[in-house]
Specification:
With 420 residues, the protein is of the alpha+beta class. It is built from eight helices and 22 strands. The protein has helices spanning 32-37, 40-43, 54-88, 208-243, 271-297, 302-329, 351-356, 397-411; strands spanning 3-4, 10-12, 21-23, 28-30, 50-52, 101-110, 115-116, 120-124, 127-131, 138-141, 146-150, 171-172, 177-185, 192-199, 249-250, 264-266, 336-339, 343-347, 360-362, 366-372, 379-384, 389-391. The two termini are 40 Å apart.
Length: 420
């Protein structure tokens, strides 16, 4: 599958198809070369008559970020719905417990010591680790009888008003009232209640709140997705009608020869890609180190594990966000540059890049060469009198300096060290 340039018939595949320009006048997609020479740079109005694919790309990346929030919001909603289901169950007297199945009981804890129901952490040879408290097995009594209770689901036990200390989870004291939902397991003397949810006095999660918050999180992303889906479908329909009679050219098989009469200079783009890779690697290693120290060498409370689950849920979409955004937004990069009496020439090794990027700009059509913005927002810019602007951060420092100095020389200004 690919997208065809409505002018030259070139078939653009993969991420290159996302870089075609939408001509607002003719209402079809064209490559940069055709937009310049066939559409006369937006029919004389430059970028005013161009709608790019960047909106759809931004929507895709926006959707990835939204996926994180949707996932977390959905988790909260499901948790709320589950607790609401538990709350709707009738309370069963302990004397009338069935042989098996899900039940809800409410009674008083029978024990001689405090119950660290959700476990504790101990510091051993390998650092801090979670250890289930053996006192977590105890009895609950109501007016009709008593039953043994246990659980391995520490995350399903709500906290109490009792102080828990640094290394202990939810603490329940003898005589505390407890509401338990669980499965009846075992026979005879071994029968007990395996807890699925427990709280001191009631069901603490209101499903309406997470549902409302989840909806607030999801709604903006759904609206953006619907908008760009409508735009994309409309453009695709119009474009298909206009390219039916255009002969198709498979660009991946296209071969071009560079004009060796020009003084080509190699363009090694060391700066941004290498710095970005080093920065991302450093961030990833730092995060791993922090997580390892936090998880293995420090004690935690019960709420820390909820945070850990949220962070773990965010890792896949956020981990995919950086490389995906780099792939989608990384435009054509020339492998060489040449300066001649006619203008500045760029050579692109890929046939897709040669059609998506402008490989030549005459000195007469250039309005400005320099840096726009300041600080982190500063970008190298090559601007034409037609209003078209090219971000030329892809040039090496040496080539950028040579281009600025040559342009200033031809304008009659004194060359100087350009800002980078």
């Amino acid at each position: 599958m690919g997208t065809v340039c409505a002018r030259c018939g070139g078939v653009f595949r993969g991420r290159w198809a996302l870089m075609l320009l939408w001509c607002k006048v003719d209402e079809f997609y064209v490559c940069r070369r055709c937009w310049k020479w066939e559409c006369h740079e937006g029919h004389g109005k430059g970028k005013e008559n161009v709608g790019t694919n960047s909106g759809e790309v931004a929507a895709g990346i926006f959707a990835i970020a939204g996926f994180t929030i949707v996932m977390i919001g959905s988790w909260a909603v499901v948790d709320g719905i589950q607790v609401a289901w538990y709350a709707s169950l009738p309370t069963t007297p302990i004397a009338n417990l069935p042989a098996q199945g899900l039940v809800k009981v409410q009674g008083t804890i029978l024990d001689t010591d405090p119950v660290a129901w959700s476990g504790r952490e101990v510091n051993g040879e390998g650092g801090w680790s979670w250890e289930w408290d053996p006192r977590a097995r105890f009895q609950v009594q109501d007016a009709t009888g008593e039953v043994n209770v246990t659980t391995n689901r520490w995350w399903a036990v709500e906290g109490t008003a009792h102080p828990s200390g640094l290394h202990v989870g939810s603490v329940y004291l003898p005589g505390d009232t407890v509401l338990v939902v669980g499965d009846v397991v075992g026979l005879g003397a071994g029968r007990h209640l395996e807890v699925l949810y427990a709280s001191p006095d009631g069901f603490l999660v209101n499903p309406g709140l997470p549902l409302f918050l989840g909806s607030l999180c999801v709604a903006p992303f759904v609206a953006v997705a619907v908008h760009y889906a409508r735009v994309t479908l409309r453009r695709s329909s119009l474009h298909r009608e206009r390219v039916q009679v255009v002969p198709k050219i498979e660009l991946r098989f296209e071969h071009a020869v560079r004009d060796d009469s020009l003084p080509w200079r190699s363009n090694r783009v060391r700066s941004q890609r290498r710095r970005l890779g080093i920065a991302l690697s450093f961030v990833a290693l730092s995060v791993l180190a922090i997580v390892w120290i936090w998880a293995g060498l420090t004690p935690h409370t019960r709420s820390d594990f909820y945070a850990a689950v949220v962070l773990a849920a965010m890792v896949p979409p956020l981990g995919a966000l950086f490389p995906l955004s780099w792939v989608l937004y990384k435009g054509p990069v020339p492998t060489a540059m040449a300066l001649s009496d006619r203008g500045v020439h760029f050579w692109y090794a890929s046939p897709y890049e040669r059609r998506l990027a402008d490989g030549f700009a005459s000195w007469d059509e250039i309005e400005f060469v320099g840096v726009r913005g300041s600080g982190d927002s500063a970008t190298r810019s090559l601007e034409r009198k037609s209003g078209a602007k090219d971000d030329v951060d892809f040039l090496s420092r040496e080539n950028w300096t040579e281009l600025v100095n040559e342009w200033q020389r031809r304008r009659g200004t004194s060359p100087g060290p350009p800002a980078t």
